[in-house]
Amino acid sequence: MSLQVELEHYRNVLIVRLRGELDHHTADVVRFKMEEAILRGNSDHVILSLKDLLFMDSSGLGVILGRYKQLKARGGKMVVCDVNPSVHRLFELSGLFKILPIHDNERLALTSLEVVS
């Protein structure tokens, strides 16, 4: 299975919706698209919406951690929402939830970043 990446800018937030599998085959595409969108869109924060992400391996974790560090260096935040159980377990095991807040949906994630319309 492949991966689809949907990017949406909302004010100063980049919403990244991932659908499919984030693994060593697709990690570079996600890394490139997110980096470019963060820089080009002047995004201060990122919301990762993972409702349709069916699988992720350590390469995917590396991409997420790298973009988190990129945002943090710029004074921004990253939050995660709509995480399915298998990906949730990977986040727990890796310790990513210690640095990335998780929310039930995009609306709550936006609220946490204080950019609600």
Automatic annotation (TrEMBL):
SUPFAM superfamilies named in the record: SpoIIaa-like (SSF52091)
Gene Ontology molecular-function annotations: anti-sigma factor antagonist activity; antisigma factor binding
Keyword Phosphoprotein: yes
Entry keywords, A to Z: Phosphoprotein, Sporulation
Residues covered by the STAS domain: 3-113
GO biological process entries: sporulation resulting in formation of a cellular spore
Pfam families: STAS
Protein name (record): Anti-sigma F factor antagonist
